[in-house]
Amino acid sequence: MTDTSEATFTANRSRLVGVAYRMLGSLGDSEDVVQEAWLRWARVDHSTVDDPTAFLVRTVSRLALDRMRSVAARRETYVGPWLPEPVLTGRAGPDDQDPAAEAERAASLSLAMLVVLETLSPLERTVFVLHEAFAYPYTEIADILDRSPAAVRQLAHRAREHVAARRPRFAPDPDLRREATERFLRASLHGDLAALLELLAPDAVLWADGGGKVRAPRRPIRGADKIARFFVAVGGEALSSGATMEIVEVNGGPAAVLVGPSGAEGVLQLDLDGEGRVTDIRMVGNPDKLGGLASLTAGG
Predict the structure, then answer these.
(1) Residue 5: helix, strand or coil by DSSP?
(2) Residue 56: strand pairing partners
(3) Strand order in the sheet with 263-272
(4) CA-to-CA distance for 58 and 40, rounded, in angstroms?
(5) What's the pLDDT tens digit per position in 127-183?
(6) Is the pTM of this model over 0.85?
(7) Alpha helices (runs of H) in the chain, residue ranges in sequence order
């Protein structure tokens, strides 16, 4: 391993993690995949590699595809709703030069989109991520997957149709989502049932991912009244033991993070409809999934 080859890997690491994370929805699994790619890169004869970036993306994609198949059984036995692992975003990186491309990558990073991608087959998800989020041509994806370009196009067509039917219909302005998040928090912390009912769409749904590690509803809660009463009941407990609430950018959108003395303890993110009402609430409290928020500390 030379300094040049190590620098090449380092320069591509952000993209590699981005590909793996969108394929797996787990930062921990993504880091494992990228680490394995590093070991393979260290063993290869670099003089035989014409395009290091293509080699690394191909390696990570194949490893992530294998990992997707192996984690399916793990998720079948998961306690309660499974949600993707939240990560802090909003920091510029080496791939942030093209605003249009970055907007597409941000859309593919949202918790809502990652939930939709969970319903694709592993091959469909791989094709969708590489083509829609990272603009890889079908010919390159065909080489990565050992499939024909025609087969890859068919996979892409199925994936796009599936995603279009399930992705959120509205993408509210981030400032509107932030304002709704702040209002939702105030109403929850003050036990204001009327304010919560005003914010929630009648058919709103709450998913809470505790993974059996922390107290959380093990089934989705549906309907504005049930959700509002849930937050009135638990809101007063949220800021005990010196915890604070911070609103930061998570997976490309504003989210409320509960930060305790030892770091992040949970995250809440809202999706809105075209009228600005809350339609979906996703909460992650499983401590195993909060590594992507590790830089947040109480008072920091």
Answers:
(1) helix
(2) none
(3) 221-222, 200-209, 278-284, 263-272, 253-260, 244-250
(4) 12
(5) 999 999 999 999 999 999 999 999 999 999 999 999 999 887 777 788 999 999 999
(6) yes
(7) 3-24, 27-43, 52-76, 99-109, 111-117, 122-128, 138-145, 149-166, 174-189, 193-199, 224-235
